[in-house]
Design brief:
Helix content is about 50%, strand content about 20%. The chain is α+β, with helices and mostly antiparallel strands. It has a five-stranded antiparallel sheet. Strands 7-6-10-9-8 form a five-stranded antiparallel sheet, with helices on both faces. A five-stranded mixed sheet has the order 12-14-15-17-16, with helices on one face. The chain starts with 5 loop residues before the first helix and ends in an 8-residue tail after the last strand.
């Protein structure tokens, strides 16, 4: 197996780059120093010539006008700016400053080139002139007489040519660097291609594995380094595949459990953004068609109490539980629980949600049922106990004793009726009824009406039965005892709450695809505020209790549940003092042959 030298090549490239930068910097510094020395030599030569033309007496006497004339003449001869400065830094003459403005020029004593000249006999600086606003090269030397400095002479030239030479040097270095860098890049590219020959197989296999479900092992490699990597990679692959299988199995079990739950489950991060939810969670909230993953809870939960409870939980991180009324008359129960992860830190939290509408209704029904049953049983039992205790104490009057016994029998019969109605209602509510059959209800209705005629005659009531445009072969899905109990309870109420001399009408008609039955009386009627409660268990109006004290208050509840079992509708129209009209409608089925035919349909429901 071959040894690779990639590290050495990279190290070589880095060293080459470092050397290239060092050579560039050294070259630039040397050339710049050479150019400065050349400029200094040129300016020194011109200053030396100027000194020969200068009369030092003019400096001693500070004759600025004559010095200004000399500066202008030297300017014409050399093309350089000439400045004469005394020892105090005051400008005595300047070839580029008018004579009348010399007094306005600032003191030059602290200029860099002036200070250097006073200290070393030569001053040099490159900067932008404050006087003319251009970049200049300054060169300054002192004027001496018998080693005594009388003043200073300074030459200045524009730095354009000097800067151009530096710029040409910089571009030259850039060009050389580009050539060298290009060469290094070519070298690296060629070396990399050579390196890829040994790496190609490994890289190709790794690329295939990105989209490979099989995740095959890499196998032996030609180069030693890559072979060692492949061996380690294959070992990691085996362990990773085993762990993945375990995690996938656990995840499938977890998802199956979560999606089979009747509760909604949702997981949020510590900021309240949704991480995961099962289908039941959004379904209970009525949000099944939205995408809320990754969104904060207050952006998509539309129930303010739940939003407020989540915010309260995020503040104190205490478990929370609530049952509350939701929209459309529904009730939900939710729990907000912290989830502690590694490090004992609460990084996520969990919300479980359950639709408890049915449970809530059952709870309300249970409470009302217990209260109503207790009330309904208490009155007759109290009466029975009172009469029994009186008889136990001894009653000599035979007639009074007979009346007490009749009262006990009457109250006992009332209890028996109450228990019977409760059992019948319970059976109907649990849908413990016989199989629904396809039958003709007309003969049954006529029979029930005829059974009630002796009772209505005894109470001096007229009972009328009429069928309006009803075919003799009309049929619906039902059961004899259900239809019998349905009409019997309505007629029983009509008889009990009608006054002597009144009329009771039973009408049967067809409206569209439904059979409508109406039971109308001329009794006491029902107050509007009581009409919405009359189908509830044990509910009876005050006037109804006074008129028929033996009633159980369960008849209309039984009627309502029977109509629901038969997929029908029921209603009431009433006016106090004028009577009531109860009606129910049942869906019709196909006609049957013969008036009394009873045939179970192929799709009859098992209730």
């Amino acid at each position: 197996m071959k040894k690779l030298a990639v590290k050495f090549r990279l190290l070589g490239v880095l060293i080459a780059l470092f050397l290239l930068i060092a050579i560039d910097w050294l070259t630039y510094s040397q050339v710049k120093a050479f150019l400065i020395t050349d400029v200094q030599r040129h300016l020194h030569h011109n200053i030396s010539l100027t000194k020969e033309l200068l009369d030092l007496t003019l400096f001693k006497e500070k004759k600025s006008s004559q010095l200004q004339a000399l500066a202008s003449r030297v300017r014409q001869l050399t093309g350089l700016r000439v400045t004469f400065i005394d020892l105090t830094g005051r400008m005595l003459a300047d070839s580029d400053v008018p004579f009348d403005r010399l007094g306005q020029v600032e003191n030059h004593l602290h200029r860099p080139e002036v200070q250097q000249a006073l200290q070393t006999d030569v001053g040099f600086d490159i900067r932008r002139s404050a006087t003319i606003g251009k970049r200049l090269i300054y060169y300054c030397e002192p004027l001496r007489e018998n080693r005594k400095i009388l003043g200073l002479i300074r030459f200045a030239m524009f730095a354009d040519q000097f800067d151009q030479q530096l710029h040409r040097l910089i571009w030259l270095l850039i060009g050389i660097n580009l050539l060298l860098i290009t060469g290094m890049i070519l070298f690296v590219v060629l070396s990399w291609r050579f390196f890829q020959r040994g790496l190609g197989a490994l890289r190709g296999r790794l690329a295939q594995l990105q989209n490979s479900a099989a995740f095959d092992p890499l196998g032996p490699q030609p180069e030693e380094e890559w072979n060692e990597l492949a061996v380690q990679f294959d070992d990691i692959r085996r362990r990773w595949l085993k762990k993945r299988e375990e995690l996938e199995a656990e995840a499938r079990q977890l998802y199956d459990v979560l999606y089979s739950l009747q509760e909604g489950v949702a997981v949020f991060n510590r900021r309240g953004s949704l991480i995961y939810h099962n289908g039941k969670f959004l379904k209970i909230l009525g949000l099944a068609n939205i995408n809320c993953l990754g969104r904060a809870f207050y952006d998509w939960i539309e129930f303010p109490p739940l939003v407020q409870d989540i915010e309260r939980f995020l503040e104190n991180r205490e478990p929370f539980k609530r049952r509350i009324k939701y929209y459309s008359g529904r009730y939900i129960e939710y729990r907000i629980l912290p989830v502690r992860q590694s490090g004992n830190q609460e990084s996520i939290f969990l919300i479980t949600l359950q639709d408890v509408t049915h449970l809530q209704r059952l709870e309300i029904i249970r409470r009302n049922f217990v209260a109503n049953v207790s009330h309904e049983f208490k009155t007759p039992l109290t009466s029975i106990r009172g009469y029994a205790e009186t008889l136990q104490g001894g009653v000599e009057d035979e007639e009074l004793r007979r009346k007490f016994l009749e009262k006990i029998v009457k109250q006992t019969q009332h209890l028996e009726n109450l228990v019977g109605d409760l059992l019948q209602l319970s059976r109907i509510e649990r849908r413990e009824v016989e199989q629904l059959m396809l039958l003709n209800p007309l003969p049954l209705f006529r029979e029930v009406v005829e059974d009630f005629r002796p009772l209505t005659a005894g109470k001096q009531l007229q009972l009328h039965y009429r069928e309006v445009d009803v075919s003799e072969n009309v049929a619906l899905l039902g059961a004899d005892f259900l239809l019998h109990a349905l009409l019997m309870n309505l007629l029983s109420n009509a008889v009990h709450y009608s006054k002597p001399g009144g009329n009771i009408h039973v009408r049967v008609s067809v409206r569209g695809e439904k059979l409508r039955v109406e039971v109308e009386d001329q009794g006491i009627g029902i107050l509007p505020r009581e009409q919405e409660h009359i189908f509830e268990r044990f509910y009876r109006g005050e006037e109804a209790r006074e008129l028929h004290a033996a009633g159980t208050g369960l008849g209309l509840s039984i009627v309502k549940h029977i109509v629901e079992i038969l997929s029908g509708q029921i209603g009431v129209e009433s006016e106090p003092g004028k009577g009531s009209l109860f009606w129910f409608e049942l869906p019709l089925q196909k006609n049957v042959s013969g008036p009394n035919a009873e045939t179970p349909p192929e799709n009859a429901a098992q209730s």
